[in-house]
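Incident log, support desk, overnight shift.

02:14 A customer reports that sequence design results differ from what the structure should imply. Their input is reproduced verbatim below. On-call engineer (initials T.W.) acknowledged and began investigating.
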């Protein structure tokens, strides 16, 4: 039972601490998962292990979350998250990252444990439909971000900024979340830069100059023949 408890730590603390982010970056045939949790050092328990075998077990879940390996899949303990821990004066910032193949994501811990209803399809386009109860909220709110440069066919995000689509979940929403998104596979939206117009104008001018030179040369050749 203890083993199962610690396997779920990574989910329980996705959103614990002062602040946290859960990000999915979707592009063509891969999904990059990244979640960052900022934990105040005064929240991390400090204790001395008792020599009394009958002493109650000290319930510390934060330390294993920070120090132990965590696994992105339910049924594979050989694969671990890439982890980075940043030490600051008053807090620790813990970041976990993993890159899934498109067919693997359905078996991720987040899909298996955080959402009551999960529909995920990648055969033609990426279709993600998450609904019902949300089991992983341990703070007042959480923003779930999906980032993609590909064409978004439909979505019901609460906010959109650039290529980032955000769903804001609060405690009042945990019994009825609703996240829907369809993303076109293998097609990238080409964001034209602000310099595209001037560059095009310069290119047209160069073409006109070349054409003018060719016309002048042609005229001189014709004059020489006369």
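02:41 Re-run completed on a clean worker. Output:
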């Amino acid at each position: 039972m203890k083993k199962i408890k610690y396997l779920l730590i990574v989910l329980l603390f996705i959103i614990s601490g002062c602040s946290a982010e859960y990000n999915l970056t979707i592009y063509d045939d891969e999904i990059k998962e990244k979640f960052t949790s900022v934990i105040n050092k005064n929240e991390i328990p400090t204790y001395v292990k008792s020599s009394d075998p009958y002493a109650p077990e000290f319930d510390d879940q934060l330390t294993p979350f920070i120090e132990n390996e965590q696994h992105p899949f339910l049924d594979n303990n050989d694969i671990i998250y890439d982890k980075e821990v940043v030490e600051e004066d008053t807090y620790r910032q813990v970041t976990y990252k993993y890159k899934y193949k498109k067919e693997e994501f359905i078996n991720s811990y987040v899909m298996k444990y955080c959402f009551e209803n999960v529909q995920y399809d990648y055969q033609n386009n990426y279709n993600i439909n998450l609904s019902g109860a949300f089991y992983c909220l341990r703070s007042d709110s959480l923003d779930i971000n999906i980032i993609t440069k590909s064409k978004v066919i439909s979505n019901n995000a609460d906010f959109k900024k650039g290529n980032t689509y955000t769903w804001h979940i609060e405690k009042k929403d945990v019994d009825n979340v609703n996240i829907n998104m369809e993303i076109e596979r293998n097609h990238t939206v080409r964001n034209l830069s602000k310099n595209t117009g001037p560059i095009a104008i310069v290119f047209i001018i160069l073409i006109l100059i070349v054409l003018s030179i060719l016309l002048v040369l042609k005229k001189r050749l014709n004059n020489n023949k006369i």
